[in-house]
Amino acid sequence: MDIGQFTGFEVSLRDPGIAWFQFNTPERLNGMTGGIKRDLIEAVTQAQMDNAVRVLVFTGSGRAFCAGDDLKAYRSAELGGTPLMPDIPPGHDSALGTYNGLRTISQQLNTVVRNLDKLTIAAINGVAIQTGFSLALSCDFRIAADTARMGSATLRFGLLPDEGGQYLLVQILGVAGTLEFLMKKKIVTASEALELGLVNEVTSPAELEARTLAWAEELANGPQVSMRLLKRSVYNAGELGWNQALDEIAAKTAISDHHPDAREGVGAFREKREARFNAWLENDA
User: Any idea what the Cα angle at residue 250 is, between residues 248 and 254, rounded to 5°?
Assistant: First the structure.
């Protein structure tokens, strides 16, 4: 995948296979534009297809993770950096333009992140509102600095959580909890988010990167084939019936049981040593 500084974010690759996405316009609270989202879609797609990448991390710079859409930049998108994709009309100039802009770009970013079979972590360093909040919820895990705040709060402007936030919140809070959260326009602290189950861990700002890397390294060193199959199976289980879920994981087990990682895991257990998974990735590299 392409490594470097792009419009609105930069990407680095850390051992062992951690793609680190950092939003880098702190003066704009890392606000998003259609162009930034489109470039993120491309970069995430590249990460999915690159065997050098095992885990993706998203984080921000300054005092925000991402404070939502940058409406000023939508009108004047001179943000610097190298775009990954050519410009297209931003949409949102009419009812149909808004529909197409959401379905093609804004919602597609969260869809691409959720469709990854590789595991993802949002390291929420600061404010995560609207677009930033839904992106964080689209990740598999969330680690927050204790100074972070997060929420949708779109109703404060008479707007909707139109990038999938309502769906993502229902997965965590249920219908009743989501209605309360959205209708009361809540923006919660990191500790409140932890109590609600919106984040997996809260740490100090100084320790956020180290704690995130610890999570990412543990995930990256695990058996990638089985973990990716299991991730998809867990998400599918939320929408399938019992018999369909059993059949779905049986089909995936037919793959994982006969993969070299399974032989390594069983052999390590018998020999009372730590397993060394992912030889197939190391050989590919």
Answer: 120
What is the reported pTM?
0.94
Question: Using a CB cutoff of 8 Å and minimum separation of 24, what contacts does 95-102 make?
Answer: 101/34, 102/162, 102/163
Residue that has been written with the tokens 């993706």 in this structure: 56
pLDDT digits (tens, 9 = 90+) for 100-156: 999 999 999 999 999 999 999 999 999 999 999 999 999 999 999 999 999 998 999
Q: Are 162 and 143 in contact (CB under 8 A)?
A: no
Give the CB-side neighbour count of residue 263, counting CA atoms within 13 A.
6
Please identify, in words, the CATH class of the domain defined by 224-284: mainly alpha
- CATH superfamily of domain region 4-221: 2-enoyl-CoA Hydratase; Chain A, domain 1 (3.90.226.10)
Domain with CATH 1.10.12.10 in the chain: 224-284
Beta bridge partners of 152: none
